[in-house]
Design goal:
The complex is a heterodimer of chains A (421) and B (75). Chain A is mostly helical and 421 residues long. Chain A is built from 23 helices and 4 strands. Chain A is 67% helix and 3% strand. A 3-stranded antiparallel β-sheet of chain A has the order 2-4-3. With 75 residues, chain B is mainly alpha-helical. Chain B contains 3 helices and 1 strand. The chains are: A mainly alpha (421), B mainly alpha (75). Strand 1 of chain A pairs antiparallel with strand 1 (45-46) of chain B. Chain A: This is PCI domain-containing protein. Chain A: Pfam families: PCI (PF01399).
Chain lengths: 421, 75
């Protein structure tokens, strides 16, 4: 039977609550406003009826059907908040919809705490998801309305409510498995902080998750773990902790099921530059092809591999918009030094074949010639400076003889394994 | 060393980046068999590219250029 009127919806929901069927309760409370949501959700089906009802009517109906219901009278308050929110949402009042929804958070958390069993976990996830998606819509609507007196601060507000949800889930009464709800809430908070660009807020959550007394990480569901590692990996990229970023993003990539192609692709987008920095590993062509990232990284890879300064600059110019958008432009820019090092190394190798007796004394004019061939307008003074920098930063071992215009390279390991950062 | 004009970008890059980032899609299902793999790690990454081989096209052209320099120096 399909419920399109509010009383039938409430009757069914009352049964779901009484049976402690978490999945049914969660479905019934799902506002269905996240992208790609199922339009057959109970709350969507009663949309038209909600629009016709007055707020007072809805409140009364909730009390009537759920007021004395098992397991808790709190259920009526939670459902009333969700219905009033949905009503505003269907009427197109998005900021008001969010405000209505917030009224349901505290009663829901009371219910969550009272209940000993884990059936409350799924409804909690729906509450969290409703809050975040509704807040995002509300903020967009506020921005679109353009009234400067009204601040788009709903998402920030949702972050505070999600922190309450996190605390409730982290210190549960009853079944300790209720704590397994925590990681997905953390991920939702990460999404909010990334969107608001308040990344410093993530640190506290990471400390909690890393703490010994927290739930052991492997106990969480795979999807939650992968999402968490993706965000923590990206934070490490921002902090330029490439070894850490490599660990987190590799974990995310390795544990993300192959059928989740879009997520794997996004993880890989960040893992590729990280691998170059942390492990000096370049992506295989097969990998770039498979994840449709050849357009992003093929030219850069080729440039790093061959030492083609010209190709590198061209790729950086061409892909600037992409790299800036992904937040990795400054990172990619740092690879320039690797390309110079590689070119100098190859100049040295060829020079050694041409003049074996002077193998380690490479005239700087060779490097000038190589760079000019690559389209880089330069002279001896600048090249001396470039090589001096490479030596100073430990990418090349040797010294410059200014008088004779050569770089004298160390006989042992003149080009140590590349450490770019 | 920088050829790309950085002055304007450097300041704004980080902010722009986070704001306009593509979202990490939420998973429809949270549980799956993690044993399933598509590409072996060895097929994914190249670790021995920083070698002494100078026989590829780029290196051949580089050699031609360096021979020109060599002749210049000898003059």
């Amino acid at each position: 039977m399909v419920e399109t009127d509010v009383p039938s919806y409430l009757k069914k929901l009352k049964r779901s609550f009484a049976r402690k069927n978490g999945r049914e309760v969660a479905q019934a409370l799902d506002l269905g406003i996240k992208e790609g949501s199922n339009s057959k959700l109970p709350m969507s089906l009663i949309g038209e009826s909600l629009k016709r009802a007055s707020p007072a009517q809805l409140g009364n109906q909730c009390s009537k059907f759920l007021g004395s219901a098992e397991p808790s009278p709190k259920a009526a308050e939670v459902v009333a908040a969700c219905l009033l929110c949905a009503r505003e949402y269907h009427c197109g009042n998005l900021a008001e919809a969010y405000d209505q929804l917030v009224a349901g958070v505290q009663p829901f958390l009371d219910l969550f705490r009272q209940e000993e069993e884990t059936w409350v976990v799924e409804p909690l996830h729906v509450m969290v998801s409703n809050l975040r998606h509704c807040a995002e819509l509300a903020d967009s609507a506020i921005k679109a309305a353009g009234d400067e007196r009204v601040k788009p601060d709903k998402l920030e507000n949702a972050g505070n409510h999600l922190m309450s949800c996190f605390s409730a889930a982290n210190r549960p009464q009853g079944d300790p498995d209720k704590r397994l709800a925590t990681l997905r809430i953390v991920n939702s908070l990460f999404r909010i902080y990334f969107k608001l660009n308040t990344l410093r807020n993530c640190k506290y959550l990471i400390r909690v998750v890393d703490a010994k007394k927290f739930v052991a990480f492997p106990h969480f569901q795979a999807g939650d773990r992968v999402t968490y590692k993706f965000f923590v990996g990206r934070l490490a990229v921002f902090d330029e902790n490439f070894d850490e970023a490599n660990d987190h993003l590799s974990y995310a990539f390795d544990h993300c099921h192959p059928s989740h192609y879009t997520q794997r692709r996004l993880i890989l987008k960040y893992l590729v530059p990280v691998k170059i920095f942390a492990k000096q590993s370049l992506p295989s062509d097969a990998l770039l092809q498979k994840y449709d990232l050849a357009g992003w990284y093929s030219a850069i890879k080729e440039a790093v591999k061959t030492g083609s300064v010209g190709k590198f600059e061209e790729a950086l110019r061409e892909k600037m918009a992409l790299f800036v958008q992904a937040g990795i432009f400054l990172l990619m820019e740092k690879l320039r030094v690797a390309v110079y090092r590689r070119l100098l190394k190859r100049v040295k190798l060829i020079h050694a074949e041409m003049r074996p007796e002077k193998a380690v004394q490479v005239p700087l004019r060779y490097f000038v010639g190589a760079l000019q061939w690559q389209g880089y307008v330069t002279d001896l003074d600048e090249v001396e400076c470039i090589v001096a920098n490479l030596i100073y930063n430990g990418h090349v071992k040797g010294y410059i003889s200014h008088k004779s215009g050569v770089v004298v390279l160390s006989k042992k390991e003149p080009f140590p394994a590349m450490k770019i950062y | 060393m920088a050829e790309v004009k950085m002055d304007k970008y450097q300041e704004v890059v980080k902010q722009v980046a986070i704001e306009e980032d593509d979202d990490f899609e939420e998973f429809e299902t949270q549980e799956w068999n993690e044993a399933e793999e598509d590409l072996a790690d060895a097929e994914r990454w190249e670790n021995d590219w920083d070698d002494d081989d100078v026989t590829d096209d780029f290196a051949k052209q580089l050699r031609t250029e360096l021979e020109k320099v060599s002749k210049e120096i000898a003059k």
